[in-house]
Write a structure and sequence with these properties.
The chain folds into two domains: 2-188 and 365-450, no CATH class; 190-363, 3-Layer(aba) Sandwich (D-Maltodextrin-Binding Protein, domain 2). It has ten helices and 17 strands. By secondary structure, the chain is an alpha/beta fold. The strands form four sheets. Strands 1, 4, 5, 8, 9, 10, 11, 12, 13, 14 and 17 form an eleven-stranded mixed beta sheet that branches. It has a two-stranded antiparallel sheet with strand order 2-3.
């Protein structure tokens, strides 16, 4: 189940018993509050639709794990409280870029009565991790999800999503110890996004040129690079308007590592990761660029993970249009055919940078992390099942290596050939149905287990 949108709270009137009216009222809740044995995940924006679809099915008709009606559910809390994966208040904040009281990104200031200068301005939405508990801040991003999982001594969170490795391996986030395992569930290209309408002033860029841009090594405002700087090779005299994802984003950390920076300079704006509308929010969209998930762009465009096969119209709809307006094309701008990205954008995956270095266009693995101890938990998950939750969904190893005839283990076939699954068969994420869900999210599916990391 995916939980990102705020729903109206419910108050249910009870029955009248005897001669007295007795009203039984259930607590109001903004989101479904997971039951004690539901599997709960948080973390990366890049993976959220992949896991949403694997949980509940996708827009093309492929079923999800919860479609079978099992008693306990796979619950996936999205990174943002908006189903279109946007920040609640947008990348530029309110007014002159400051946030209204209680909405800033600095921890411990939510009850302040003065304005925040944090960027980006966001609402700090909350979630109820388990029924009966108070709301806590919704983890937004790979690092935020991994930190929440690591700090969760009460087992409220079962897994975290990450678009950058979070374990102790060299080059990874280090937010999770080797007491956590991972599965790689997909591969996703990361490249630079630019506008096509209006026509972009951007040129093909290498990692070395992006380091100059995001390091603010130019002569423009706050060190912004100019497109016609000899080091970039463009023709416009406008400054580059560089956008980077929010702190805690795996896309942000991967991108900065790939271009050789530890932090962006002061000329760089901050927006929600993988949100193409962040380009439109800049003063001159034709000068704006940002790193973007190729899979997320495919989802916007209604394409499967090969970037060619159509999954119908784009997954997202104009958020200013009600269901009635969309279904009845009233106004005409709300017709399904008009639900396109504004501004029109593209990933830069071809071209030669002027410095003759390789074009920035990388392929990154996408991870789901869970506790190693949970792999061998004796707690059976669904009624009548012999498997625990992790073995049901993520990783079900064969206990024998090499396999022993008659041990009940199952040899993988098709894309899982060469892998061996334990008694009970392949976990959900290593099934063809889940792989179809992942592809419908624009992500190239894969399945690789890594103990203790990476």
């Amino acid at each position: 189940m995916r939980y990102s949108r705020l729903k109206a709270g419910l108050a249910i009137a009870g029955t009248i018993a005897g001669t007295f009216g007795v009203t039984l009222v259930q607590p109001a809740s903004a989101d479904y509050a997971p039951a004690a044995k539901d599997v709960v995940g948080v973390g990366s924006d890049t993976l959220q639709y992949l896991v949403d679809f694997a949980a509940d099915g996708d827009q093309t008709g492929d079923l999800g794990y919860n479609s079978a009606g099992n008693k306990f559910k796979l619950i996936n809390f999205d990174a943002t409280a908006d189903a279109n994966a946007r920040l609640s208040y947008g990348p530029n904040g309110v007014g002159s870029g400051q946030c209204t009281p209680g909405t800033g990104g600095t921890a411990g200031t939510g009850n302040n009565t003065t304005t925040h200068a944090d960027s980006p301005c966001q609402q700090n939405p909350t979630i109820v991790l388990r029924a009966g508990l108070s709301p806590v801040q919704r983890p937004n991003g790979s690092g935020a999800g991994a930190k929440a999982l690591a700090a969760d001594t009460a087992h409220l969170i079962t897994f975290s999503r990450a678009s950058a490795c979070q374990g102790p391996s060299t080059g990874c986030g280090g937010n999770l110890s080797n007491l956590f395992d991972s599965i790689t569930v997909g591969q996703d290209p990361l490249a630079i996004l630019e506008t096509t309408t209006p026509a972009s002033n951007a040129v093909p860029l290498s990692a070395q040129q992006l380091k100059l841009i995001y390091g603010c090594s130019g002569t423009g405002p706050n060190g912004a690079m100019l497109w016609n700087d000899a080091r970039l090779g463009g023709t416009s005299s406008d400054p580059v308007e560089a956008v980077i994802p929010q702190v805690g984003s795996g896309t942000r950390s991967t991108f900065l590592t790939d271009i050789g920076l530890t932090a962006p300079g002061s000329c760089v704006a901050v927006g929600e990761e993988n949100d193409p509308t962040a380009l439109a929010a800049q003063p001159t969209p034709a000068d704006a660029i940002e790193p973007m998930s190729g899979g997320r762009l495919d989802l916007f465009l209604g394409l499967a993970s090969d970037g060619v096969t159509s999954t119908g119209s784009g997954y997202f709809r104009d958020p200013s249009c009600s269901l009635n307006a969309i279904n009845n094309s009233n106004p005409a701008a709300c017709a399904a055919a008009s639900n396109t990205i504004k501004p029109a954008v593209k990933l830069v995956t071809t071209g030669t940078p002027s410095d003759s270095n390789q074009l920035f266009d990388v392929n990154r693995p996408l991870f789901i992390y869970f506790r190693d101890a949970d792999v061998n938990s004796a707690t059976k998950w669904q009624p009548g099942s012999s498997l625990n939750a992790v073995r049901t969904l993520f990783y079900n190893p064969c206990p024998d290596n090499p396999p022993v005839p008659g041990d009940g283990c199952t040899a993988g076939t098709g894309p899982f050939a060469g892998q061996e699954f334990g008694p009970g068969g392949a976990p959900w994420f290593a099934t063809l149905t889940a792989q179809a869900d992942i592809s419908a999210a624009g992500i190239v599916p894969s399945y690789v287990f890594t103990p203790g990391g990476p």
